[in-house]
């Protein structure tokens, strides 16, 4: 189901707006991640989509239908919570059957459907157990099966993986992607783990401070961040951000004077600083000192001093030992300038998507 | 050293247990004594000859069958009724958001500060205005709501995450359905505990039934025990024999449900 927010504002207490004039469209059949720092309003947005919370202002559409006044049941959403919210006194099968029972399906139909779903999420050998007897990953699967039971118009997941260990997380996120592809259900997934978001989503919505900072594909988000916040939030190691004035001498003639005069902050991805002989699409050459160099396996980080500013590079693997000073290349890709409001005014690709 | 500590612990625990059990032992022992033995000094611990006849005599001394029926009716209706109202109220205080919820809750909480004894007279006046004195109504009505029970249940309901409530809503469960099919079963052990405490409380209630009934037919067991105290003094042997069969049902309840009572009191309520 396509989901549309039209100028949606939400305030819990009537004083402070948690979400401010949200406008977006989630395409039917896609998997969208809501990403952002804690308190950014991700869960709140999900609650609004689900109908558990009503917006203070604005409209919500499912397809062409205005569902603003409909509750969760009317919107036919399926939801998986961070703590799974399984019913501990019921068996796995009864848990999956619960929404079907509420919908008035016969016992036989319920059992059949529960078995199918259990097979889909690979818990068909656990049907007689209680949730307390399952591992975190298994509980997670049961929660997904239960959410899918009533063939929801949209599947909502609120940080479903945050209780799992690192390995299982990676496994489960692939599982969620697989299940989403197999069922084709429109899915909204909340996370504050950018790695998770980058790997599974068709599109990512970055939420911060009650605003959508950017809503685009993972690739675009990384290659063309709309603003400084997104540039700093996405990427590991974190983007180098330095005052644009420090670079103005080296950028003169490369970047137009008009842009340079407006630029406040420069963002340089760690992989955009390379050795001249390995450069692909150089913007300019900088000169600096090596402060520290670490190599572990195939990865390396170099800390460079440029005009008394510290820059991190991950592309200096070939750096000869005991290098003190060097010329290094600033690549075009991965270099951005932001104005005083944090808006990107140089770098990236404005025609992406 | 370690061993000594553990021996000491056992000695203390055993002493504690003995002190707790002493009144029961004394009751049983007295119930099997002859009249003179009950007041003899030094006290007689084990009667020379066990007077089983005391039990028969005690049972005949007053209409205990009637008292028993009254006690069962009052205890059952009080417990069920109080549980029902408390579960509804606790649910509202825990999971529903309505205007003034916290204020109402604070006011109710405040009422717990009022000693029960202070309510006896106003309650009596109210009930006599309603012409309910000497009826089951008087015995039951004042106990149909208990904020202590509401409070205990609310604590347990609060430990059930709101997400579970939302999940049930999304699954299509009404509030009513969620309450009885999910929240209550999830809180089984606390509910059992407060039920048992309430059963024991109303079974043993003395003051209130004594005040609102003077008709023989409306007496409950604990009040009925007065039959053995007359102007001529108290027949302790018979009184203790009667007391024994008054408390036996509670002892049985306790033995079967002690697991839940302990869990409920230590409020680890939710493991299920
Ligand atoms: N029920 C509520 N009542 C009042 N304020 C709330 C409520 N729920 C959330 N908030 C506030 O709304 C803001 C956004 O919260 P939200 O839970 O949507 O953030 P989030 O992005 O999901 O964060 P997290 O990553 O920590 O889950 C926060 O400032 C929070 O304090
Ligand atoms: Mg959240």
How are the SSEs placed, and which strands pair?
The complex is a heterodimer of chains A (353) and B (272).
Chain A: E1 3-11, E2 17-26, E3 31-35, H1 42-50, E4 57-62, E5 65-66, H2 72-75, E6 77-80, H3 92-102, H4 107-120, H5 136-149, E7 154-158, H6 166-183, E8 186-191, H7 194-200, E9 203-208, E10 211-216, H8 218-223, H9 228-233, E11 240-243, H10 248-251, H11 257-262, E12 263-268, E13 273-274, E14 282-296, E15 299-306, E16 309-313, E17 325-331, E18 335-339, E19 344-346
Parallel strand pairs in A: 3-8, 3-9, 6-7, 7-8
Antiparallel strand pairs in A: 1-2, 1-4, 4-5, 9-10, 11-12, 12-18, 13-17, 14-15, 14-17, 15-16, 18-19
Chain B: H1 2-31, H2 35-39, H3 53-61, H4 64-95, H5 101-111, H6 116-129, H7 136-140, H8 147-158, H9 162-170, H10 175-186, H11 188-204, H12 207-212, H13 221-224, E1 229-230, E2 233-234, H14 236-265
Antiparallel strand pairs in B: 1-2
Helix pairs in contact in B: 1-14, 3-14, 4-8, 4-11, 11-14
The complex binds adenosine-5'-triphosphate (ATP) and magnesium ion.
Strand order of the largest sheet of chain A: 6-7-8-3-9-10
Overall morphology of chain A: elongated
Number of helices of chain A: 11
Query: Low-confidence parts of chain A, pLDDT < 50 over ≥5 residues?
Result: none
From the structure provided, what is the oligomeric state, counting identical versus distinct chains? heterodimer
> Based on helices, strands and strand pairing, what is the structural class of chain A?
alpha+beta
Rg of chain A, rounded, reads 24 Å
Low-confidence stretches of chain B: 268-272
CATH topology of the largest domain in chain A: Rossmann fold
CATH topology type of chain B: MetI-like fold
Largest sheet of chain B: 2 strands, antiparallel
Q: Ions, cofactors, ligands: which are bound?
A: adenosine-5'-triphosphate, magnesium ion
- Measured between the Cα atoms of the first and last residue of chain B, the distance is 40 Å
Helix/strand/pairing category of chain B: mainly alpha
Helix content percent band of chain A? 25-40%
The CATH first-level class of the largest domain in chain A comes to: Alpha Beta
Overall shape of chain B: it is globular
Q: Strand-and-helix sequence of chain A, N→C?
A: EEEHEEHEHHHEHEHEEHHEHHEEEEEEEE
What string, H for helix and E for strand, traces the elements of chain B in order? Answer: HHHHHHHHHHHHHEEH
- Mean pLDDT of chain A, as a whole number? 90
């Amino acid at each position: 189901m396509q989901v549309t927010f039209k100028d949606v504002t939400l305030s819990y207490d009537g004083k402070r707006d948690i979400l401010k004039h949200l406008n977006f469209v989630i395409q039917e059949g896609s998997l969208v991640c809501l990403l952002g720092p804690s308190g950014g309003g991700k869960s709140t947005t999900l609650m609004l989509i689900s109908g558990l919370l009503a917006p203070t202002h604005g409209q919500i559409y499912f397809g062409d239908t205005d569902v603003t006044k409909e509750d969760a049941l009317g919107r036919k959403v399926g939801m998986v919570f961070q703590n799974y919210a399984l019913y501990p006194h019921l068996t796995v099968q009864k848990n999956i059957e619960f929404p079907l029972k509420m919908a008035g399906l016969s016992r036989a139909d319920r059992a059949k459907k529960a078995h199918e779903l259990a097979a889909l999420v690979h818990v068909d050998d656990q049907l007689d157990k209680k949730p307390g007897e399952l591992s975190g990953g298994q509980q997670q699967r049961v929660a997904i099966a239960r959410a899918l039971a009533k063939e929801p118009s949209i599947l909502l997941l609120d940080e479903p993986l945050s209780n799992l260990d690192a390995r299982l997380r990676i496994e489960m996120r692939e599982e969620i992607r697989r299940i989403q592809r197999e069922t084709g259900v429109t899915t909204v997934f909340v996370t504050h783990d950018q790695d998770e978001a980058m790997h599974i989503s068709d599109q990512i919505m970055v939420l911060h401070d009650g605003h959508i900072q950017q809503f685009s594909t993972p690739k675009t988000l990384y290659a063309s961040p709309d603003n400084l916040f997104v540039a700093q939030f996405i990427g590991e190691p974190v983007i180098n951000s330095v005052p644009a004035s420090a670079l103005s001498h080296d950028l003169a003639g490369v970047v137009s004077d008009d842009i340079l005069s407006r630029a406040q902050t420069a963002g340089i991805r760690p992989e955009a600083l390379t050795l001249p002989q390995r450069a692909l699409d150089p913007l300019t050459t900088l000169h600096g000192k090596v402060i520290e160099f670490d190599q572990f396996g195939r990865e390396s980080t170099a800390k460079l001093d440029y005009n008394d500013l510290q820059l991190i590079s991950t592309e200096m693997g070939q750096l000869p030992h005991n290098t003190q000073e060097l010329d290094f290349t600033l690549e075009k890709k991965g270099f951005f300038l932001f104005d005083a409001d944090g808006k990107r005014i140089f770098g990236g690709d404005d025609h992406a998507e | 050293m370690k061993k000594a500590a553990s021996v000491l612990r056992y000695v203390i625990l055993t002493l504690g247990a003995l002190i707790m059990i002493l009144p029961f032992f004394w009751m049983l022992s007295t119930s099997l004594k002859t009249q003179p033995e009950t007041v003899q000094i030094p006290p007689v611990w084990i009667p020379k000859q066990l007077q089983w006849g005391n039990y028969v005599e005690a049972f005949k001394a007053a209409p205990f069958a009637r008292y028993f029926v009254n006690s069962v009716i009052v205890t059952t209706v009080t417990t069920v009724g109080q549980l029902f109202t408390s579960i509804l109220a606790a649910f509202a205080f825990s999971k529903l958001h309505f205007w003034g919820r916290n204020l109402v809750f604070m006011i109710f909480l405040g009422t717990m500060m009022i000693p029960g004894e202070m309510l006896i007279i106003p309650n009596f006046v109210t009930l006599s205005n309603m012409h309910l004195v000497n009826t089951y109504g008087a015995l039951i009505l004042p106990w149909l709501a208990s904020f202590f029970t509401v409070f205990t249940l609310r604590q347990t309901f609060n430990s059930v995450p709101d997400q579970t409530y939302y999940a049930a809503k999304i699954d299509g469960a009404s509030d009513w359905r969620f309450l009885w099919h999910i929240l209550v079963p999830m809180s089984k052990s606390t509910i059992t505990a407060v039920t048992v405490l309430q059963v024991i409380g109303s079974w043993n209630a003395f003051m209130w039934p004594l005040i609102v009934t003077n008709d023989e037919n409306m007496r409950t067991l604990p009040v009925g025990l007065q039959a053995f105290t007359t102007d001529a003094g108290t027949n302790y042997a018979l009184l203790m024999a009667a007391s024994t069969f008054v408390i036996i049902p509670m002892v049985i309840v306790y033995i079967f449900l002690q697991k839940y009572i302990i869990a409920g009191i230590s409020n680890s309520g939710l493991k299920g």
